Amino acid sequence: MNDVLAANLRSSIAAKNDFLANPEQLDNFRRAAEEVVACYRKGGRLYVAGNGGSAADAQHLVAEFVSKLARDRAPLPAEALTVDTSILTAIGNDYGYEKVFSRQVEGKMSERDIFLGITTSGRSPNILMALNACRAMKIPTIVFTGHDGGACRELADHCIVAPGKTTATIQEVHIVLAHSLCECVETAIFD
Questions:
Q1: Which among 126, 181, 186 has a CA at the least distance from the CA of 155?
Q2: What are the percentages of helix, strand and coil residues in the chain, rounded to 5?
Q3: Taking CA 86 as the corner, what is the angle to CA 80 and CA 91, rounded to the nearest 5 degrees?
Q4: 134, 115 Cβ separation under 8 angstroms
Q5: Which domains does the chain have, with CATH numbers?
Q6: What is the C-alpha to C-alpha distance for residues 69 and 183, in angstroms, rounded to an integer?
Q7: What confidence tens digit (pLDDT) does each residue in 160-187 have?
Q8: Is-contact 160 28, C-beta < 8 A?
Q9: Were 170 and a residue from 32, 54, 67, 120 both cysteine, which residue would form a disulfide, CB within 3.0 to 4.6 Å?
């Protein structure tokens, strides 16, 4: 059991070091964080979506924005598009699961808002459809993804690709990105 833990820790550390050594991805992150700051400064909201573990990460990130990350401050408006079971099941039933996020984008978001999709593969059909809806509505987009970035690399305004060979390792980098994004926004807005 200790061997499994040690191997997983080494993989996680290696992925984070790989990200740290990638100036392109560091710059993608900086530009994405600046875009979220600009969104909040113009009165917009952050909307976040993902599937499975990435859905949990979406909710986790939104909690940090609305409550706080590390210091007392006013709440920042954010919403996870993964939490309303009536909306999810209605859209899934009536239009198909691939539209569970794009219909919400169309119904809830405006140009002053920003969308963050989380998909380890970069190929989740419902995230891709949400990105297309955002593009049509001129809503800025960020994606946390993995592997080669998938189709998200072409659709998102800011595609941040986490290194790692497994979903678990990619998601561990996504959590660091999410916490860092929140910290950057808190510092910029409330300093």
A1: 126
A2: 60, 15, 25
A3: 85
A4: yes
A5: 2-190 (3.40.50.10490)
A6: 7
A7: 999 999 999 999 999 999 999 999 999 9
A8: yes
A9: 120
